[in-house]
Amino acid sequence: MSTRIFGSGIRRREDPRLITGQAKFSADIQLPETTFLVFVRSPHAHARILSVDCEAARAAPGVIRVLTGEDVQLSMPCAWLLPDSDLKTPEHPVLAKDRVRYVGDAVAAVIAETEGQAQDAAELVEVGYELLPAETNPESATTEGASELFDDVPKNVAFRWIAGSDEALVEQAFQDADVVVRERIVQQRLQPTAIEPRAAIAQWNSAAQEMTLWCTSQNPHIHRHVLGLVVGIPDHKLRVISTDVGGGFGSKIPVYADEALVCWASRELARPVKWVETRSENYLVTIHGRDHVEYVEMAATADGTAQAIRGRVYAAMGAYLSTAAPGIPTILHGLMYGGPYTIPLARCESIGVFTNTTPTDAYRGAGRPEATFLMERLMERLANQLGMDPSEIRRKNLIPPFQDGYSSAMGLTYDSGNYAENLDLALEKAAYGKMRASQQRARDEGKLVGIGVTTYNEICGLGPSQVAGAIGFQGGLWESAIVRISATCKVQVMIGTSPHGQGEETTFAQIVASEIGIPVDDIEIIHSDTDRTPMGWGTFGSRTTPVSGAALALATRKIKEKARLLAAHLLEAAADDIEYEDGKFFVKGAPEHHQTIQNLALMATLAWNLPDGMDPGMEASQFYDPPNFVFPFGTHIAQVEVDAETGEVTLQKYVAVDDCGPQINPLIVAGQVQGGVVQGIGQALWEGTVYDDSGQLLTGTLLDYAMPRADHFPYLELAHTETPSPHHPIGVKGVGETGTIASTVTVYNAVMDALRSLGIDQLEMPLSPARVWAAIEEARSGESA
Ligand code: MCN
């Protein structure tokens, strides 16, 4: 059993409650005496607040309190204080005081006996505004004459971060290059669309001076830490619980102003206060992702060997710095310049820019999809310019296999990789030669068929805490796990991470089961409650399995060692003579003399007959701070056909071959890759936030924001290679974001391949039918002119 359960595609144990309506989400929490909070939000992207008249609202039925920026003097911190970047951290008040800076900025909050009463009263709050010009584009917001969001942030520049090789050396490489390819890339803004909008419900216990907050968090311990500081509640008096969370995709990492206000108001009123986001509110105020304008270029020799890459990124921060925002277009983006290729020189300049838009932060992939996108665009251009096959240009530049460390030009040490083997498998799975031949036949028939090939690697499993400190992250990045086994050998596992759709209630039980032979059904994984679980930093950056999973494996091994010593004692054998298999500890060569883990758990708990010096009980705790990040990788191949008459792109084939080390549960890994691929293709083909010039969000509902749908996709063909991480106790790397990182550019390049014969080699995303059709029309009119 122990060997089989690791790597077995058992079904997710969390699903029955999720798909039968038995899950409990934050909005489901019902407490006696609850009050309801509704925000009055700015309808303008940039304006001075002249007056806030709350009289009518205060007099409305059921209203308990109306709060403005004058009443609540709280502000939200940014938790990624990027060093050496001249980072500006202007105040982010929980309720705007003198100015609003994006549509949705909260100006007042109404608390009433019912949600309906709070909504009605919120409409009675009269706010006087003096409109100011709005900036929505991160590049133009830095130009002379742009409207400035903060008096002390000239030209809206929040930070300027530069990393990588020496500037002069990079410049020289460009001077010496046979070929230089370049592109201006717009990484359009995206709206994370978790199926469950956010919610917060706070309950203050005045007798105990304690607060309980139920909220939709990917990292309740970070919420406790930050909200405790913001609202002024000691850590040990604040309990944060994230019951079931209906997806996050990064958007439930940040600690939001609304959550702080709900806590503050509950203490103020000494009653529970509840706020539940609507979908429209979610699109306005829950963080957005991406939003870069990038200028990137690559220098190469005539035979296609890349020599240097450099880029300048204008990254929108939105109106305020969200919790982790400065780290996304810098550490998680710039440090991946070079990707899986042996490029000796790389340099990134990233400029964070305030704009009159919703704050941005981590959205699935967070910085790495953008890095892979630009690497693969430049590789594609190089291949086209030199007349090489896209797969060959990549093969030529891939880092040769390495088992224990490769130093990248950006200063990272990739843990392990076998990129060429992975590329070969993907080409084989896709029958690449046949694909190209049938593409040629289709083209001969006048069809616009294109193929995209991406090789990528990425940084996840964040990460060593020492590095966190060095890069300005205001927290640690270690994890801890407690494994507690009862007298009847039932296991409670407490972890500090907070899965919200990824399936660790299943895979983490598989880790324990495979280490110590206890059936999965006897193991419960407890998470997302700061009073029941040990401190941890949370689920993001595909770190739950690489970091928290490592803590768990090591905690289980501690128990196994104790069980072995106890078995030796009970069997009257030397500890060195005890062997283990499938939940049984036995004397070498005499398997009939054994103790089961079940009996050992009982004997440890009873403590009637323990070896000298052994503590009673079967419980272990383990802290784990990883020595390095992990670096998964893979190859994705897509084939598309573009309908020249409608501009519609049809995805005909998609092959993803990823390597996340040994897979604990291939079914769950496949689900993660499929979800990620679909999400990434959403960016390539359909999704994109649209603001008008005055900063109004035009994609504020699910009717306007085009999400991918199941019938857009062919069967996704998945395969994998397996290159263990040398520093992880069970060798695993993360997989939660790989699909998103690779798929956007794979499909984008396929569409460009289809359109190349028309002279089209670049379009902004999303590659919507209207945009593609217009480009084809323009190209054709140019041809006929
Ligand atoms: N796994 C495995 N074998 C491996 C690696 C992972 O079986 N070698 C399993 C894990 O044990 C886990 C799953 O795959 O069940 C994903 O694990 P991991 O890569 O550790 O990623 P995290 O759990 O840390 O998830 C975070 C990642 C991120 S950053 C985003 S964003 C994201 C994602 O996961 N958001 C998601 N996947 C999501 N899936 C759902 N359903 N909902 C989200 O909000």
What characteristics describe this protein?
alpha+beta; seven-stranded mixed sheet; Aldehyde Oxidoreductase, domain 4; five-stranded mixed sheet; 28 strands; about 775 residues; globular; binds pterin cytosine dinucleotide
Let me know the average pLDDT: 97
How much helical structure, as a percent, in the residues?
25-40%
CATH class type of the domain at 414-460 and 631-785: Alpha Beta
**Biggest sheet character:** 7 strands, mixed
Ligands present = pterin cytosine dinucleotide
Our count of helices gives 19
> Could you please say which CATH topology of the domain at 414-460 and 631-785 applies here?
Aldehyde Oxidoreductase, domain 4
Number of strands: 28
Q: What is the general shape?
A: globular
The poorly predicted ranges are none
Distance between the termini: 72 Å
Q: Give the second-level CATH assignment, the architecture of the domain at 414-460 and 631-785.
A: 2-Layer Sandwich
Structural account:
By secondary structure, the protein is α+β, with helices and mostly antiparallel strands. Among the domains are: 414-460 and 631-785, Aldehyde oxidase/xanthine dehydrogenase, molybdopterin binding domain (Aldehyde Oxidoreductase, domain 4), CATH 3.30.365.10; 463-624, Aldehyde oxidase/xanthine dehydrogenase, molybdopterin binding domain (Aldehyde Oxidoreductase, domain 4, 2-Layer Sandwich), CATH 3.30.365. Helices cover 29% and strands 24% of the residues. It is built from 19 helices and 28 strands. The strands form seven sheets. A seven-stranded mixed beta sheet has the order 3-5-1-12-9-10-11. Strands 7-15-14-13-8 form a five-stranded mixed beta sheet, with helices on both faces. A four-stranded mixed beta sheet has the order 18-26-27-28, with helices on both faces. Strand 19 and strand 20 form a beta hairpin. Helix 9 packs across helix 10 (390-397), helix 9 packs parallel to helix 18 (738-755) and helix 17 (666-685) crosses helix 18. The longest helix is centred in the last third of the chain and has 28 residues, at 544-571. The protein starts with a helix and ends with a helix. The site of pterin cytosine dinucleotide (MCN) has 34 residues, from helix 14, helix 15 and helix 17. Pterin cytosine dinucleotide binds next to helix 14, helix 15 and helix 17.
